[in-house]
Amino acid sequence: MGKKVTIRDIAKESGVSTTTVSRLLNHVEGYCSKDTEQRVWAAIERLNYHPSKIARSLVTQKTNLIGVIFPDIYNSFFQDLFRGVEEYASRLGYQLILCNTDGNSKKERDYLLSLAENLTDGIIISTSNAKDDNTTIVDLHKKGFPIVTVERYGKELKDVPRILFANREAEEQVVDYLYRSGHRRIAYISGPSNAVNANRRQEGFRNGLSKNGLLVDDSLILTGDYKLESGQECMRRLLDEHGCGDRKKPDFTAVMAGNDLMAIGAVRAILERGLQIPDDISVIGCDGTMLADLIRPQIGTIRLGGIEMGKKAAEYLISEIKSEDTGEKKVIFQPQLHLDGRIKTIEE
Amino acid sequence: MGKKVTIRDIAKESGVSTTTVSRLLNHVEGYCSKDTEQRVWAAIERLNYHPSKIARSLVTQKTNLIGVIFPDIYNSFFQDLFRGVEEYASRLGYQLILCNTDGNSKKERDYLLSLAENLTDGIIISTSNAKDDNTTIVDLHKKGFPIVTVERYGKELKDVPRILFANREAEEQVVDYLYRSGHRRIAYISGPSNAVNANRRQEGFRNGLSKNGLLVDDSLILTGDYKLESGQECMRRLLDEHGCGDRKKPDFTAVMAGNDLMAIGAVRAILERGLQIPDDISVIGCDGTMLADLIRPQIGTIRLGGIEMGKKAAEYLISEIKSEDTGEKKVIFQPQLHLDGRIKTIEE
To answer: Taking CA atoms, what residue in B is nearest to A52?
Structure first.
C-alpha cells in the first residue's frame, strides 16, 4: 500500500497550515482567500486525498457516533437495550459503537475514556452487574460530556440523566400475585449480593411478604450468582431442606428467582426430583428472556422493557448532545408481569 | 460547561503550529527547540488541556481500537464470535467496538467506512446473513486497510484474510450419523435461499443423502427464514403432508434444520401433535446455541466454534495491523457434532 495521504501532506503541498486545510474541508467559510482555497482543493485532488472522519471531527467536534457500554453481550436484557438505542438513534443518523466490559471496572473506565475522548458524541452506560464505580461517569458529566446511565445506582449520579427499572416493585407485585393465587410459603433464589439490582429485587420480595402479612422465613431465601447452575444448586438445597410427605413435595408452593437463568436452573432441579411444574411448585424468574418463553414447562417471568429503556436512553442522550432540554432527566420503568397461565392457583 | 480546550488553543497560546503541539504530545522528538517545547508544555498546563485520542491518532495513526461488524446481536454465533475476538485482542491491549448491521447492506457499508476512516486500526466483519456485498471490503483491503472476514463468501474475497466454517461438511456428517443410526427418510428445513450458508448447508444435506445411497425427496425439503416460527410452520406442513398410521406418525424419522431456532420451532410443532422426541422424530439443529442444550426434550446440534473463530480472526487481524505475516490467511473451521444421546437409534 502507498502511504496514506494526510491533512499534513495537503498543507505542505499547498503551502498553508493544517488548520486552513481542515477548515476548508469542514466548509468553514471566510477563513482564507479564494486563491488559497483553490490551491488547497487542487492539492487535495492531485494527492487523491480522502478526508478522515478524525480530521474532520477536530473542527466540527461531532462524530455522529454514540457509544453504548454494557457488561455482557450474552445477556438478553443488554441485547434488548442496545436494540432500543439503535432503533431510536439510527433514524436520526447516528451510528452506534458498542463496548463490552465483562463487569470489569478497569475495562469500563478505559472504554468510557476512549469513547469520551472525541470518538463519540455521547455515551449510554448500563450497570456493570456488580458494584458500580461511578467516578468516571460523574467526572465526564461534570465536564459537560453527554452521558446517560441505565440501571446504575448511587447518590453521586443524581444529576446525571438516568433510566431505571423498578426492581423492588417488580418482585413485590409477583408476591402480590402469588398471594392472590393462594400461595402462602414462597422460596427465593437471589442474585449475587454485590449486584445492586439483586439486592433491590430481594428487598422487594421481602417487602411483598410483609405487606401481605406473610412470615419472612430466611431458610427459604438462598443466594446464587445469576448463572443457571447456581439456580439448580440452590433449588436442590431448598428441596433437600424443605422436602416432606409423598414424593418429597416441599413445604412451599412457589419459588421466585432473581433472574430467568437461575429460574431455569430451578426448573431442572425440580424435574430431577420427579416433581411437577406448576402443580407442585410454581417457578417465576425475572428479565423476560426468550428462554423463559421457550422452555417447557414454561415459567413465569417479569419483562423489564429493555427495548423501551434503550429508546428512552437514546432520546435523553441525543437531547443532551444537542443541548435541547436541560431539565432533569430521570425515568423509572415499571415491570410487566408474565404470570397468567404459568402459576398454579391454590384453592383454600 | 466551559468550552473544551483544543490543540488549536494550545497552538495559539504558545505561538506555534498545531502540528508542533501534536508532535510534542506524541513524543516525536527533535522537531522544535527546547525553548518552544517548554512554552508549549506551559500552555498545556495553563489551559488544563487533556489531549484527545483523535488528536493523538492524527500523528501516530494508531487507535488501538478494533472494529467488529456483524448483523445480529441476538444471534449466539455472533455473540461467541465477538467473545473470541475480545479474549484474544484485549490481552494485547486492544479495545473493541462493535457495530450491528441488521443485515442491511447500506448500514454495513456506512459502518465499514466510518470505522476504516481512522477510527480503528482494523476491522473484522462477518456475514450479513443474506446476500453479501463485498465491494467495500475488497476496496479497503486493496488500499491496505487491515480487514478480516468471517463466513463471507465470494471469489472477489480470495486475497482477503478469511475465516470460514465447513457448512456443507457439517450437514453431510449429520446425515452420515443418522444413516449409521438406522434413519432412512430424513426431512430438512432450510434457511432462507438468499443466505449463502443456508444454501451450503442444504447442499451438504443433499450430498449426504446421495453419498449414503438415499433418495433425495424434494417433498421433504422446505424453506424457512432462520426464525423460530418458520421452523414450526414448516414442521406442521411436513406432518400434514407426511403423517400416516396411528397417532399420525410421519413417514420420516428425523428432521434437520438449518439452525437451532428453526429446530426449536419444529419441536413445538411435533409436541403439538402429541408425538415424541426422539422416539417418533429425532430433531437436529445447527449453531450449537445455549437454547439447544436448555430446551427439553433436548435436540441435536452442531457447534460452529464461534469463540475459536473469533480468536483466529483477531490473530489474523492483529498480524495484518502489525504487517507481521504477509502470507495467505485462510482457515476453515470443522463442525463439532452434538448428537450423542439426542438421536434415536433405529434397529433394523
So the answer is: B117
